[in-house]
Write the structure tokens for this entry.
Amino acid sequence: MQQVETIDELREARRQLTGRVGLVATMGALHAGHLSLVEQARAENDAVLATIFINPTQFGPGEDFDSYPRDLQGDLEKFRQADVDLVFMPARALMYPPGYQSYITVEEVTQRLEGERRPGHFRGVATIVAKLFNLACPDVAYFGQKDAQQVAVIRRMAADLNFPLEIVVCPTLRELDGLAMSSRNVYLNDHERAAAACLFRALRAAGDQYEQGRRDPAVLQETLLDILSSEALVEIEYAEVVDPRTFQPLQALYDNPLLLVLAVRIGRTRLIDNALLPWSLNARDGLTATLGEISANSL
Ligand code: PAF
């Protein structure tokens, strides 16, 4: 595995990669969810390029940029074991040198939910991902369904700015009690960790209702809120039933796939999760298919 830190080194190493190249962009603190993206990229490409960069522009004031978990040596070892070909790990000053002033704003799909709670977050994500796409020139880039709105933003940005690549969405990996894997789970103490399982319980219960034919978004939302509010440690930010193309709330019965989206705070930790309904869409390629139809329709 080759490790590079400068843009010249990256461009040279990228030139040496032949065939189809898959990109897995990360902020490090790797867990099994990241490694599942690498595994899929490995299986579907001739070469895998991974990046490690804790992107300061996607953290708002008072967010956890300074305390974000860092384990560079551990991350490199995990990438090595997962058979990554090339790792790009730039310094902050390389990606945002003094005088830097160019940012990408994706408009409608960033207005609500994460975009509303974390002003500037998606501007930072769209900007760094566009820079990584320009530098790494991947044929395909892999992202996790756990950040479903981020995927919609990246897909929109890539289509609008004519990046010649495919975006693949990989299913959320979960702990045994259903908690979605996240680098931020390490912030949870034992009590908070136990309470955090309620996110998946809420998604599962609303999903079961849907499968039993209760398709009214208001009923599904009520179920999400009931389960989340039964945990004293959980402070709900949002629990909604949205159109997975637009992230707008659904009010009426709806025949197309729905997305349940949750964000809560437990102590100092902010957690998000989501599930597509019908539940079977959460299997491999569910969100890719759902958002793929959409981008094809809206291009
Ligand atoms: O999902 C993440 O880890 C980050 O938002 C990403 C896509 C690597 C951009 O910094």
User: Anything to note?
Assistant: The pocket of pantoate is lined by residues 25-27, 55, 58, 125, 128-129, 147, 150 (CB under 6 Å). The mean pLDDT is 94. The radius of gyration is 19 Å.
